[in-house]
Amino acid sequence: MAPILKLIAQRLALGVLLLLAVSVLIFAGTQILPGDVAQSILGQSATPQALANLREAMGLNDPAYVRYFKWLGGVLTGDLGTALSSGQDIATSIKGRLWNTLFLAFWAAIVSVPLAIILGLLAVRYRNGFVDKLISGLALASTSLPEFLIGYVLVFFFAVKLQWFPGISTVYEGMPFGQRMQAIALPATALTLVVLAHMMRMTRAAILNVMQSAYVETAELKGLSAFNVIRKHAFPNAIAPIINVVMLNLAFLIVGVVVVEVIFVYPGMGQYLVDHVAKRDVPVVQAVGLIFAAVYIGLNIIADIAAIIANPRLRHPK
Amino acid sequence: MANLATPSDNLLDIRNLRIEAKVYPPGEEPRNITLVHDVSLTLKKGKVLGLIGESGAGKSTIGLSSLGYGRGGVRITGGQVFINGRDILTSGKSGIRKLRGREVCYVAQSAAAAFNPAHRLMDQVVEASLLHGTGTRAQAEKRAVALFKKLSLPDPENIGKRFPHQVSGGQLQRVMTAMALCSEPDLIVFDEPTTALDVTTQIDVLAAIKDAIRDTGVAALYITHDLAVVAQVSDEIMVLRHGRLVEWGGTRQIIKEPRQEYTNQLVSVHEITHEEQKPGTTPFLSVKNVTAAYGGGAVKVLKNVSVDIYPGQTLAVVGESGSGKSTLARAVTGLLPPLEGNVTFAGRPLANRLADRTKDDLRQLQMIYQMADVAMNPRQTVGTIIGRPLEFYFGMRGKQRDARVAELLDKIEMGKGFIDRYPAELSGGQKQRVCIARALAAKPKLIICDEVTSALDPLVAHGILELLLELQKEEQVAYLFITHDLATVKSIADSIAVMYRGEVVRYGSKSEVLKPPFDAYTELLLSSVPEMEIGWLEKAIKGRRMESAGN
């Protein structure tokens, strides 16, 4: 097998293993908490007999590993269990919300990733000058501000004062695309501002690192303009660390949106999670935790594989 | 004196060039230093001028000024640089960009580092031509292939499709020359283009560059520290020192009748006369049938190697890069445990693995490396660096230790004043001397010297070799001296092992190994060492061709 395929297969296998380990952790974590599902359903006033009956009916008396494999088997076949608080099927209620979260993350990423990379390139081009300091300063400021503050500032100006966008990002099924975009404009902007600086500064640092190389000097001595030297000769060699940090931020856009979703009352995964943590709805927390872990691991595997593919030594062995 | 108008036959005319840089010495205020002091030179179309000098002479800095380029914080602060009659220093950024890669091209010392690893060779070779609009892509590629052929690269039609890491160092250097020639410039700056190559590769690349210069009629600035090399390709030679002109004249005049004392020093052959010692009766260290490999036995780099080292004598190991010289050192020190065979020391076998050796065994074998500056902790003073083995092996403390450090500093001909200095404050030669003192501090039986003079200027290297011989007499220490430089071998060795592809192909006392008849490889090595003689290159190449045709 070509070494590159072997490496990629290794990464994928490692990702699956990691996800299994995480599922064990999540399951174990919810077991350590005092009380169990039967207790939660029946509440404080339950009689011991009723508790025992329910435990028997739900299989809670089985050993932990049996329950784990039952749960895992359910997850693998698309059955995430039933929410305690509402009695609804978790998979069904998550589907729409996951889609909403991905939709928001997608548009935030479409704006923030190219913007961060272009700003990073510009910062390198004008390094240590006014433009570099301005870009770095603004990006750092936007990241240092907590997202709830950014969220409320955006709402104040663009929803209350200017009334360009709605302050509450309600979306529903069958909503026309244009309206949907208008609804997510503010949360997407808030998310962009949060993740921008990290990616931009990493792009800048990774490219600056490469700028010391002899081949960058060669390119300069061919008469290429400063920006083309960076774009054609420095950037392709800095791509692996950049992809890594981009993927970390994409993961944040999906799993870290809790606060932003709550501020804008956006019906995504974050809000769903917060609601059910408050209600101590363990099956839902487990399911959402597993999905978030899967997203995180998946994106990091993509980053690893992209870095492998970006390396010409692996792509074109001797 | 026609100072205002440039004579039209001068392609390059540098007048009173002054170049400065800001330096940041440790613990001091940053200050300006002048790297080049009012140097002037002219170069006619199609001619080759060699710039020669030790490191810090300003030769690369002057060469790059003809592209309007200053490395790092280097600034051109005075003088004029005319190319084709235009002062490029006043032509602005876009003027300089139009010049670079079009009228003046650059060939770097290490082509392996100067090619972008992310792009195919052809894309990089034709890049400047396309940028400056000297033809379509098809035309540029056609020119490139023709140049690959001229530079005798293998498979010229397809080599451009490869990535830099798929091509050897010597070939990359030739591709880089083709890259410089591809946009049909008037001037090429060659910056030590063969310094990083093995002697046997250097001679091929040198011949290829020389032919290409002759056939294309391009002018060249050829920068090197090796007079023997520059004598082969240059019409004129300019000797520089500390950023000042020492002497400028025709190649024959410079190497045959130098007028300045400094040039004379560079030109005269610095042979150290070292009386060969006859091997004693019993070697104290024997390498017996050692086979070693990397990657868990996958890549065998040493094959059945046996050599002996006698007390107080020097075994020189010579060969090209990749011949297994350094791996032999790693096997002896235990850094790379041999797959088969073993190393005996004082009549008993040494543990193969470093971790299994006793402290005293470790003390007996010390190492000195090629890159002295990375072999020392930059945050420790010279006193701490030399004192460390004294504490570690002998438990010396306080005054006793300091006295011994001072004694060692004296031995390496550096005064007590150096005890509190940091490595960054030392010159290259001084750093290597400190490394020698550190090795000596352990009172070892054997010091392994891995290319210890390769990174040094010839005159400094000469001093280091003399010191090593002197210390050998005083301390009765043996050396395993790894080098690719046959001149060094002649001046220091008692016995020689010639290595080729992991095997010892010739082994014996110095006089036996250097006495004809030679095996093919030793012959090739010996005939590839540049000699300071005009026409040596052609003669050497011709000699090799006859030999290969005769075989």
From TrEMBL, chain A:
Principal location:
membrane
Stated membrane topology is: Multi-pass membrane protein
What Gene Ontology terms for biological process does this UniProt record contain? Answer: transmembrane transport
What keywords are annotated for this sequence in UniProt?
Answer: Cell membrane, Membrane, Transmembrane, Transmembrane helix, Transport
Q: Does the keyword Membrane apply?
A: yes
Which residue ranges traverse the bilayer? 12-33, 102-122, 134-160, 180-199, 242-267, 287-310
Signal peptide range: none
Family to which the UniProt record says this protein belongs:
Belongs to the binding-protein-dependent transport system permease family.
Q: By its UniProt entry, which PANTHER family does this protein fall under? A: DIPEPTIDE TRANSPORT SYSTEM PERMEASE PROTEIN DPPB-RELATED (PTHR43163), PEPTIDE ABC TRANSPORTER PERMEASE PROTEIN (PTHR43163:SF3)
Instruction: Please report the name of this protein according to its UniProt entry.
Output: ABC transporter permease
TrEMBL record, chain B:
Q: How does it sit in the membrane?
A: Peripheral membrane protein
List the InterPro entries.
AAA+_ATPase, ABC_transp_ATP-bind, ABC_transporter-like_ATP-bd, ABC_transporter-like_CS, Oligopep_ABC_C, P-loop_NTPase
Subcellular localization:
Cell inner membrane
Question: Mind listing the GO biological process terms from this record?
Answer: peptide transport; transmembrane transport
What residues does the ABC transporter domain cover?
A: 17-267, 285-526
Please tell me one Gene Ontology term that the record gives under cellular component.
plasma membrane
Keyword annotations of the record:
ATP-binding, Nucleotide-binding, Transport
Q: Which family does it belong to?
A: Belongs to the ABC transporter superfamily.
- What is the protein's given name? ABC transporter ATP-binding protein
